[in-house]
Structures are given as structure tokens and as C-alpha cells.
Amino acid sequence: MSKPATRAYSRHTTAALVLLGNLIREARTTSRLTAGELAERAGISRDLLRRVERGDPGCSIGVVFEVATLLGVPLMEADPGHLALRLQHSMEKRALLPRAVHAARGKVKDDF
Amino acid sequence: MSKPATRAYSRHTTAALVLLGNLIREARTTSRLTAGELAERAGISRDLLRRVERGDPGCSIGVVFEVATLLGVPLMEADPGHLALRLQHSMEKRALLPRAVHAARGKVKDDF
DNA sequence: TATGAATGCATCATAAACAAGCCATTTTGA
DNA sequence: TCAAAATGGCTTGTTTATGATGCATTCATA
Predict the structure, then answer these.
(1) CB neighbours of B53 closer than 8 A, spacing ≥ 6?
(2) Do A65 and B13 make contact, defined as CB atoms within 8 angstroms?
């Protein structure tokens, strides 16, 4: 009984997922690692790695990011090494932002 | 008995997750959307959105990416709009790559 | 400064991810 | 070519994420 995907994903989301999966697989083959080898290093099953490389939306984001990290596939950062810096800035910025948002009565940014 | 994260994540992975969560929350507050409103639009519970904004590694990557997409938070693409193009290139490239990797006997890219 | 609203955080039931194992098929390199 | 190895794709049982609910706390704004 294959689950009938109770959740819907936008085209953009699907594209991002599949792209990330492709990048991971490319990086793995470039590194000459078998699926079994990489799965073992990542501490996951070979089956799960297969889903990751496919861009399965149901995979845990932590697992996907960890595999990408193991292979050196860039995640959020535009230039490598800037992730930590961006995170720091983000944390500082957050301290300044309002902690709660009350329902907007006027116009809401709705153009998406 | 909540088992405390049987899985281990690297520092880099955690940073990327928290950063993405922060970006999502910043985008939400900037758009003046409450957690309940955004959760409803994303088709998820408010509780899950909270975990997403926290950078919980256990969240489905599809859910996280979908929320980010709803808010316009860039995912893989350096410049917006290039995701589809990158995906296309990736798919073409994949057709040329070897489909199986046999265990390397020589030296393996192991420097990570 | 009130006060209605938003958020944080528990708990519990349920749906879904995940691991393990197995076999068929494809691929690589000798 | 051919045999060993890698991959694809199931299935089953266990672990875990998720939704629903409720409540305490904090916040925004009138």
C-alpha cells in the first residue's frame, strides 16, 4: 500500500527537493562512494539514502542536510564558509524583531 | 518518554537548519502573518510550524521547503528564478553520469 | 495599563518515517 | 563475456513525527 501523498507540494518546492537530491547523488558518485558506504557514514539505511537522492519530501530535513554536509554539498550559503556568519547575524537580528505578530487588519503581503 | 534525538547532527547541519528556521520566521513576521495563519496556508499545524522555525531536524524537508516557498525564502538557488534552470541542467547531467559506483580500491575522496 | 490575541509548551492518539532484510535487475571492471 | 558488486524496489515491524487540544505566559495595541 503505497501512501497516496496526503500532502501537496508546490512546483518550486519539488524542484528544490529534486535538485538537492541530484546534487547529493552527483557528489557521491564523484567521490566514488557507494550508496551503502555513504549510508553507513551518515548512520542511515541505504533505503533512506535512496529516498534522499530522489528528493522524497517526506525525509527528515536533518538527515538530508547531514548527508549533504558529509559530501560538501552547499546548503544555505551562497559562498562556502559563510553559513556560520549568516547564522550569527540572523540570531542577532532576531533579538531585535517583535516576538509576536498580531493579525493584520489592513493589507497583508499576500502576493505569493 | 521522549527519547532525545537518537540521531547525531554535525555543527554545520545544525547551523543550516537554525538559519533556515530563522529566515522563515523573519519572513513571516515581515509579512505580518501569525503562526496560525501561515500554518493554515501551508496545511500544517501551528505546532509543526513552530518546530520548523526552530530548525528541528526531525521535520519533513518537504514541509520546511514548502513553508519557505510560501514566504519567498530562497532555498537552493543563488539568484531567484534560477532553480528550475539548475534542475534542468542537473537532470541532463545525470543522464551522462555512471549509474553505479563500484567500491574504489584506490584512493577515495575522504577529506571531509 | 488593561485585554484580547499570539506564542510556548506540554500530552496523547494516530499517521508516517525509518531500518532491516530480501530478491530482481543493472552495472562495472577484469 | 561474465561474475561480483551496486542499485531499485518491495515488504514488515518499530520508531518517530504530526495533529489536536488545552493552558500558562507574553505581547501588541487601543
Answers:
(1) B21, B22, B24, B25, B28, B35
(2) yes
Instruction: Quickly name the fold that domain A11-96 has.
Output: 434 Repressor (Amino-terminal Domain) (1.10.260)
> Which pTM value belongs to this model?
0.88
What is the total residue count of chain B? 112
Q: Where are the domains of chain B?
A: 11-75
Radius of gyration of the CA atoms of chain B, in A: 18
**Mean pLDDT taken over chain A:** 86
Q: B11-75 has which fold?
A: 434 Repressor (Amino-terminal Domain) (1.10.260)
Closest CA relative to residue A44, chosen from A57, A33, A60: A60
Asked if A76 and B101 come within 8 Å (Cβ–Cβ), the reply is no
State how far the Cα of B38 lies from the Cα of B33, in Å rounded to an integer: 6
Residue B69 burial (C-beta neighbours within 10 Å; 0-12, 13-18, 19+)? buried
